[in-house]
Amino acid sequence: MIKCIIFDCDGTLVDSEYLCNLGLEIKLRDYGVESSAIDLMKRFRGGKLATILEAIESEHQIKLKEDFVSSYRSLVDELFEKDLKPCEGVNTALTEIELPKCVASSGPLEKINKALSISGLSKYFNGKIFSSYVVGSWKPDPGIFLHAAKEMGFQPKECAVVEDSQAGISAAKSAGMRPILYDPNNIYDHTLYSHTINHMRELQGAIT
């Protein structure tokens, strides 16, 4: 029986994946790299920023400046302030599902909190926010989810994880939790996943 729900943040609670990759698209233009936000999103969804940047440097034979990450994050903050919104149906789902909830994201804690605050979702989690940058574990490693379950007071088998990336789903499986793929744009082959939803209104059925 599922007693706790662990949510990813970017692309799951908040519609931020495009904005994050738009920021990357804009910053990479300074280095002569023309990669669209959509292509970057498809390729690197759910990945660790440092790993993504290493791949880009290698592929395009460039060296990013030391301040690239800080300037990129500042740009993303601006994009968030202007355009960030909750994913469709999230507010209703979080209101109606009364199980304990938390967020476990690969993003920095400050970024997660900012995204939840701007989108008006902070109130649903009572400070139960866990970041890979604090835990020292990045998906597909299950460490971030195991840490979240322990802090929430539940066994892994009692937890469901809602994720929009393959890395997150792999981490949930490795943690021994119920993985629920949120795929509103039908990016993935749903026959490969045991639990999938296209809209947050389907979440209640996926955890019962």
Architecture blueprint of SSEs:
Elements: E1 4-7, H1 17-28, H2 37-44, H3 49-60, H4 68-83, H5 90-96, E2 101-105, H6 109-118, E3 129-131, H7 132-135, H8 143-152, E4 159-163, H9 166-175, E5 178-182, E6 196-197, H10 203-206
Helix pairs in contact: 1-2, 1-4
- The CATH homologous superfamily of the largest domain is called HAD superfamily/HAD-like
Radius of gyration: 17 Å
- Fraction in beta strands: 5-15%
Element order: H for helix, E for strand:
EHHHHHEHEHHEHEEH
Which structural category fits the helices and strands?
Answer: alpha/beta
Oligomer: single chain
Can you describe this structure?
Its cofactor is Mg(2+). Keywords: Hydrolase, Magnesium, Metal-binding. This protein is α/β, with parallel strands linked by helices. The protein folds into 2 domains: 4-15 and 85-206, HAD superfamily/HAD-like (Rossmann fold); 17-83, Orthogonal Bundle (DNA polymerase, domain 1), CATH 1.10.150. It has helices spanning 17-28, 37-44, 49-60, 68-83, 90-96, 109-118, 132-135, 143-152, 166-175, 203-206; strands at residues 4-7, 101-105, 129-131, 159-163, 178-182, 196-197. The chain has a 6-stranded parallel β-sheet with strand order 3-2-1-4-5-6, sandwiched between helices. Strand 4, helix 9 (166-175) and strand 5 form a beta-alpha-beta unit. The longest helix has 16 residues, at 68-83. The protein is globular, with a radius of gyration of 17 Å. The mean pLDDT is 95.
